[in-house]
Design brief:
It contains 26 helices and 34 strands. By secondary structure, the chain is α+β, with helices and mostly antiparallel strands. It has six domains: 129 residues, Rossmann fold, CATH 3.40.50.140; 152 residues, Topoisomerase I, domain 2 (Orthogonal Bundle); 137 residues, Topoisomerase I, domain 3, CATH 2.70.20.10; 129 residues, Topoisomerase I, domain 4 (Orthogonal Bundle); 44 residues, no CATH class; 61 residues, no CATH class. The strands form ten sheets. The protein has a six-stranded antiparallel barrel with strand order 9-10-16-15-12-17.
Length: 912
C-alpha cells in the first residue's frame, strides 16, 4: 500500500478514484506547521535557526498520516506544484521523521499540473526527490516575513497608537494605494480645448477631422489651453477652404494575448466578471480540484497559481483541433503559437491556466457548475482558445487634410479603422480598466488626394485634465506585478489583509486608503523608507527567485537583509513621539489640511481663532487638535469635511423646538452619535447612536430629532394589544414586543418600519425559542464533513456569520464572505475549533495575555508573525496535560543554538 499526501480532501477523493486499490490518498489540509508567534522562532544570532510548531488543528491529521505510513510500502508527496506545495511536502516529511513513522519505506515527490486521470497517472511514473532549492526559497521568504512583522510591528504599536501591524509585502502594497491618493489630492486640473471639423466629400459623405497643426507647428492634446485660443482657431476654420492632402491606408495585425497567469486571471475576472481576486482564486481552486461530470470527478482547469504562459504540446494540439472544428481552418494559424515569459526560475515556470480539455465547451459544462463557476470557466476557455487563433487583420486609414485660411495653413487629421478579418476577436477581446475610445468599426469615406471638401460644422469643446484614477483591485494587482512586488499567488491574500486591518476600503470598486493606513505609510516612509521602496522589495523577490533556482544560499539573503534592518529598528528606540508627530504632520499636510476655498489658513483653529491645528496622538489613535490646549479644546478627526463635526468634535444641527436645547452630532470614542443639550448636575444628556449607513455629514435636524425620540411605538400587536416598539440599542436597531427583541435587517429603517413588518420580525424571533435564542436558522449547507460525516452549514449569527457541524460552531474570519465560503475552508474552521475545545476547560489566560494574542494575530501577513509576551512561569507549568501537549509540539532547527541559550529556552529536537 502506497500512501499519497495531497492538500485538500476534495482532491484526495478524486485522486483516490484515479489510482484505485494499492493507494491511500490522505489530505493534509494545507500547511501543517508554522513559526510560533513568540521570540526566538527565527533567531538571527543562531544563524537564523527556525523553530517550527505543529498547528493544533493538524495534530490529529498528522497522527492519522503517521499511522498509515507505518504500515505502508512507501510515501508519495503529491502536494501542489509550486514553492508552497514543495514546502508542505517538506513539512509533512519532517514530521513523519520526528514521529519515526518512516523506516525502509521509499519517499518520493510527484507533481501534476491538472487533476485528470491521465495527468495523475503520468505523474506517478515520474517521481523525484523534494526540491531543496524550492524549500530554501520558502524558508527565506518565511523568515523575512517573520523578521519584518515581529520586529517592525511593535515599533508601530509603541510610536503610532491605533496601528495594527506592518508586513513586508503588505506595507508596500499599501504605499501604492496611499501614493495614488496623494497624487489625486495634489492634482491641479489643466484646461484644454479640442477643435473638431465636420466635413463632407463631394458625394455628401460626412466625417470628422481634428485640428492637428497650425502654421507648421504640431498641435497636441493640451496645446490649446483657453477659450480665446480655441475661438481664434474656430474663426480661422470657418473661413477656410479644405482639401485632401493625402490618404494612407495601412494594414495592421492584432495578435491574441497568451493564456492566463494567476495575475492576469485575477485582473480580467475583476474587470469582466466583477470578482474580487480572493473570490476568483476560490472558484478557480474548485474548478482545478474537480467537478462531478455525470458520476466522474474531473478537474476542469490546470493549476491556477502560475507565472507561466506556455501550454503543453498536447494541450496546444487539442486546442487547435477545437478551433478547426468550431471555427474552421481560416481561424487556425499555419503553425502553433508559442508564448514565453522571462521567468527567473525555470523550475517554477509552470503551464498557463487552461482547460484540461478544450473540447469541454462552456455551454456543455454550465449544467454541472454554479453561475460563478460557469462564468469563470468560460473566461478561461475563451482566453485559451483565442490564444491559438489567427491574428485579426485591420486596416487603419489616415486622411491628412489641409485648411487654407488666407495666409494661414491649418492641418487636420481624420482616422478610421475597420476590421478586415476578425480572427481571434470573434471570440475574445481583453477588458480595460478604464473606458477608452475605440476606433474599430469607424470607416472613413472614399477620398482621393487634392479632392475638395465641404465644411459642415466646426465644434470647440472645453476639457479639463483629470487626476489618475484610484486603483481597483485588478489594477493594483497589475501594478504590483509590473513592479515585481510579491508573487501573484499571494496578491489576493495581501489585498484581503489590507481590508481586514482597515487600512483600505473598497468604494465603487476602487481602493481608498483609510486614515489608519495613511498614518502607517507615512510613518514607514519617514523612518523605514528603504523597506517600503518598490525597488528594494522587488529586489528581494528576485533574490528569492535566485534561491529557488539554486543560484545563491538562502541564509546569505537573510544576513544581508538583517544587518541593515536590525540597525534601522534599533535607531527607533530613542525616537520620541513628538518627532513622529512632526514627521507625519508634514507628510500628511495635503491630506489633513487641504487649501480652503476662501484662501484662509487651513491650520487656523476655527474655535479660538488664534491656535494652530496640528496632528495629535491619543489613546485611540491620531486626531487634529489646537495648539492652545487646554484653553481651547478644539478637536476633529483626520478627514474632517466641511459638514463633519468641528470644535469639540461636534456640529450643531439646530434647536429642539420642544426643549429649546441644542441638537448636535458628535464624534466620540466609539464613533458618531447625536446629543440633545449638555450635561447638567451630573445628569447625562439624551443621546442616540447613528444607524448603520448614515454618515454624520448626512444627518439633518429633522432626522436627528426622530432618532433622539426613539424608542417609538410602531403600533399594537394584533394578538394581545400590547405595544411594539422600535429603537436603537447596543447591538443596533431593533423591534421589541414584551421581552422579545428582534434585530432589524439592513433593508429595514428604524424610523419608518411599519406594523406588519414588525409583527413578522417578532414572530420569527419568538419561533426560535425562549428569548429568541432557540433553534438557529438552518443556513446554507456546504456538504458533509469528509472525515466525521454529517452536514456542515454556514449560518448568520448574532455576532456575525459562522459555520456549524453538530455541536461545533466556528466564527468566520472578518474578511471572509459567507456566500463565497467553500466546504474545504469550512472544514478547516470546524476542525480548528474542535481541536481548541479542550483548552476551554483550563484556566483562561490573563487579560494582558489575551491582548497580546490579539496583537499577534493582527501582525500576521501571509505568514508574518509579531511578538507575544511569554506566559508566566506558573501558566507554563500548570498541569500535566499542558506539559504533555508541549512535548507533542514538534520543532526543527537549521542549526543548534549555543549551549547557553539552549539552557534558558525550550529545548529543540535534533536537527532534521
Amino acid at each position: 500500500m502506497q500512501v499519497v499526501i495531497v492538500e485538500s480532501p476534495a482532491k484526495a477523493k478524486t485522486i483516490n478514484k484515479y489510482l484505485g486499490p494499492g493507494y491511500e490518498v490522505i489530505a493534509s489540509y494545507g500547511h501543517v506547521r508554522d513559526l510560533p508567534s513568540k521570540d526566538g522562532s527565527v533567531d538571527p544570532d543562531a544563524d537564523f535557526r527556525m523553530l517550527w510548531e505543529v498547528d493544533p488543528k493538524a495534530q490529529k491529521r498528522l497522527s492519522e498520516i503517521a499511522s498509515a505510513v507505518k504500515g505502508s510500502d512507501g510515501l508519495i508527496l503529491a502536494t501542489d506544484p509550486d514553492r508552497e506545495g514543495e514546502a508542505i511536502s517538506w513539512h509533512v516529511l519532517e514530521v513523519m521523521r520526528q514521529k519515526k513513522a518512516l523506516k525502509d519505506q521509499k519517499v518520493s515527490r510527484v507533481v501534476f499540473n491538472a487533476i485528470t486521470k491521465q495527468a495523475v497517472l503520468d505523474a506517478m511514473k515520474a517521481p523525484r526527490d523534494i526540491d531543496v532549492s524550492l524549500v530554501d526559497a520558502y524558508l527565506a521568504r518565511r523568515a523575512l516575513d517573520y523578521l519584518v512583522g515581529f520586529n517592525l510591528s511593535p515599533v508601530l504599536w509603541r510610536k503610532l497608537p491605533g496601528a495594527r501591524s506592518a508586513g513586508r509585502v503588505q506595507s508596500v502594497a499599501l504605499r501604492l494605494v496611499c501614493d495614488r491618493e496623494s497624487e489625486i489630492e495634489n492634482f491641479v486640473a489643466r484646461e484644454y480645448w479640442s477643435i473638431v471639423a465636420r466635413l463632407a466629400t463631394p458625394r455628401a459623405e460626412e466625417f470628422e477631422a481634428r485640428l492637428s497643426g497650425a502654421d507648421g507647428k504640431k498641435i497636441t492634446r493640451l496645446t490649446v489651453g483657453n477659450g480665446e485660443e480655441a475661438a481664434a482657431f474656430r474663426a480661422a476654420l470657418e473661413s477656410a477652404s479644405f482639401r485632401v492632402r493625402g490618404i494612407e491606408a495601412k494594414p495592421v495585425k492584432r495578435h491574441p494575448q497568451p493564456p492566463f497567469t494567476t495575475s492576469t486571471l485575477q485582473q480580467e475576472a475583476s474587470r469582466k466578471l466583477g470578482l474580487a481576486p480572493a473570490r476568483t482564486m476560490q472558484i478557480a481552486q474548485r474548478l482545478y480540484e474537480g467537478i462531478d461530470l455525470g458520476g466522474e470527478t474531473v478537474g476542469l482547469i490546470t493549476y491556477m497559481r502560475t507565472d507561466g504562459v506556455d501550454m503543453a504540446p498536447e494541450a496546444i494540439a487539442a486546442t487547435r483541433g477545437a478551433i478547426s472544428k468550431q471555427f474552421g481552418e481560416r481561424y487556425l494559424p499555419g503553425v502553433p503559437r508559442k508564448y514565453s515569459v522571462k521567468a527567473k526560475n525555470a523550475q517554477e515556470a509552470h503551464e498557463a491556466i487552461r482547460p484540461t480539455d478544450p473540447n469541454r465547451h462552456p455551454r456543455d459544462m454550465a449544467r454541472h457548475l454554479d453561475a460563478e463557476q460557469a462564468r469563470l470557466y468560460e473566461l478561461i476557455w475563451i482566453r485559451t482558445v483565442a490564444s491559438q487563433m489567427e491574428s485579426a487583420l485591420l486596416e487603419r486609414t489616415t486622411a491628412d487634410i489641409e485648411a487654407k485660411a488666407g495666409p494661414r495653413t491649418l492641418d487636420l487629421t481624420a482616422t478610421g479603422t475597420v476590421v478586415k478579418f476578425d480572427g481571434f476577436l470573434t471570440l475574445y477581446r481583453e477588458g480595460k480598466d478604464d473606458e477608452d475610445e475605440d476606433e474599430e468599426g469607424r470607416r472613413l469615406p472614399a477620398m482621393s488626394p487634392n479632392e475638395a471638401l465641404d465644411r459642415r460644422d466646426i465644434t470647440t469643446t472645453q476639457h479639463f485634465t483629470e487626476p489618475p484614477p484610484r486603483y481597483s483591485e485588478a489594477s493594483l494587482v497589475k501594478r504590483m506585478e509590473e513592479l515585481g512586488i510579491g508573487r501573484p499567488s499571494t496578491y489576493a491574500a495581501v489585498l484581503a489583509v489590507l481590508r481586514e486591518r482597515e487600512y483600505v476600503k473598497l468604494e465603487k470598486k476602487r481602493l481608498v486608503p483609510e486614515d489608519k493606513g495613511r498614518l502607517v505609510t507615512a510613518f514607514l516612509s519617514s523612518f523605514f523608507k528603504r523597506y517600503v521602496e518598490y525597488d528594494f522589495t522587488a529586489g528581494l523577490e528576485e533574490k528569492l527567485d535566485e534561491v529557488s533556482a539554486g543560484e545563491i544560499d538562502w541564509k546569505d539573503v537573510l544576513r544581508a537583509f538583517w544587518e541593515d534592518f536590525h540597525a534601522a529598528i534599533e535607531a527607533t528606540k530613542e525616537l520620541r513621539v513628538s518627532q513622529v508627530l512632526d514627521a507625519l504632520d508634514e507628510m500628511l499636510t495635503a491630506h489633513v489640511f487641504p487649501p480652503r476655498e476662501d484662501g484662509t489658513d487651513p491650520r487656523l483653529c476655527p474655535t479660538c481663532g488664534a491656535g494652530r491645528l496640528s496632528l495629535k496622538m491619543g489613546k485611540f489613535g491620531a486626531f487634529i487638535g489646537c495648539s492652545n490646549y487646554p484653553e481651547c479644546r478644539h478637536t476633529q478627526p483626520l478627514s474632517a469635511s466641511d459638514d463633519a463635526p468641528q470644535g469639540d468634535g461636534k456640529r450643531v444641527l439646530g434647536t429642539d423646538p420642544e426643549t429649546g436645547e441644542e441638537v448636535t452630532v458628535r464624534v466620540g470614542r466609539f464613533g458618531a452619535y447625536l446629543q440633545l443639550g449638555e450635561a447638567k448636575d451630573k445628569e447625562k444628556p439624551k443621546r442616540s447612536s447613528l444607524p448603520k449607513g448614515l454618515a454624520p455629514a448626512d444627518v439633518d435636524l429633522e432626522t436627528a430629532l426622530k432618532l433622539l425620540a426613539l424608542p417609538r411605538e410602531i403600533g399594537l400587536h394584533p394578538e394581545d394589544g400590547t405595544p411594539i416598539l422600535a429603537g436603537i440599542g447596543r447591538y443596533g436597531p431593533y423591534v421589541q414586543h414584551g421581552r422579545t427583541y428582534a434585530n432589524l435587517e439592513d433593508a429595514d429603517d428604524v424610523l419608518t418600519l411599519g406594523l406588519n413588518r414588525a409583527v413578522v420580525l417578532i414572530a420569527e424571533k419568538a419561533s426560535k425559542g425562549r428569548g429568541g435564542r432557540g433553534a438557529a436558522a438552518p443556513g446554507r449547507t456546504l456538504g458533509d464533513h469528509p472525515v466525521h460525516g454529517g452536514p456542515i452549514t454556514v449560518r448568520a449569527g448574532r455576532f456575525g456569520p459562522y459555520v456549524n457541524h453538530g455541536k461545533v460552531n466556528a466564527t468566520l474570519p472578518k474578511a471572509t464572505d459567507p456566500e463565497a465560503l467553500t466546504l474545504d475552508e469550512a472544514v478547516q474552521l470546524i476542525d480548528a475549533k474542535a481541536a481548541s475545545a479542550p483548552a476551554k476547560a483550563r484556566k483562561a489566560p490573563a487579560k494582558s495575555t489575551a491582548k497580546a494574542k490579539a496583537s499577534t494575530k493582527a501582525a500576521a501577513e501571509d505568514g508574518e508573525s509579531a511578538p507575544k509576551k511569554a506566559p508566566a512561569k506558573k501558566t507554563a507549568t500548570k498541569t500535566t496535560t499542558k506539559t504533555a501537549a508541549t512535548k507533542k509540539t514538534t520543532a526543527s532547527a537549521e542549526k543548534k543554538a549555543p549551549a547557553k541559550k539552549a539552557a534558558t529556552k525550550k529545548a529543540a529536537p535534533p536537527e532534521s
